[in-house]
Amino acid sequence: MNNNNATTTTKVLFVCLGNICRSTMAEAVFKHAVEKRGIGEDFDIDSAGTASYHIGANPDSRSAETCRKNGVPMNHKARQVCDADFAKYDYILCMDEENLRDLEDMAPEGHKAAVKMFGTYDPKGDRIIKDPYYGPQGGFDRNFAQCTRCTDALLESLGYE
Question: What are the Phosphotyrosine protein phosphatase I domain coordinates in residue numbering (predicted)?
Fold first, then answer.
């Protein structure tokens, strides 16, 4: 069930530090979920990083492989959060408390976006989506499970089943 006005697009930006692991995975998982539900046209979805380390880079191969093995397509080039994002997006959802502090510092006065951690939607209460970059593959698998749970809960909170 969709409680949104048919002409309204909900704009969601996922954010992590470098935009090659967690936020790209969250973007891919969320896009896949809305497409599977047939509601893709109701959303404008992207991801970005708080830092400029990887601008223009493809997603981390381990993140891409985790999505691929779960049947989720991933297509993104890393970019950095900019002032315009705070005006464009309804939701800017980050992966950890450091990202949240960085976003709050970057946010222009009077912005409209709801800025919060994506993990606040996790029904298991696992608020932090940890950076898997320096760890084993298991961290990417854990992130995928978290992103899936948070996606389902976010969609439910927006009036979608």
Answer: 10-157
Give the residue extent of every domain in the chain.
10-157
* Residue 37, token pair as written in the block: 């539900």
0.90 exceeded by the pTM? yes
Q: Which of 16, 21, 94, 147 is catalytic?
A: 16
Residue 121 DSSP label: G
Q: Is the predicted pLDDT of residue 111 greater than 50, yes or no?
A: yes
Model confidence at 63, pLDDT cuts 50, 70, 90, reads very high
User: Which is the catalytic residue, given 22, 85, 122, 147?
Assistant: 22
For residue 12, give the 3-state DSSP assignment.
strand
- Residue 5 predicted with pLDDT over 90: no
Q: Which is catalytic among the residues 85, 96, 102, 131? A: 131
Q: Please confirm, yes or no, whether 22 is among the known catalytic residues.
A: yes
Active site residue 21: no
CATH homologous superfamily, domain 10-157: Response regulator (3.40.50.2300)
Sign of CA dihedral 53, 59, 65, 67: positive
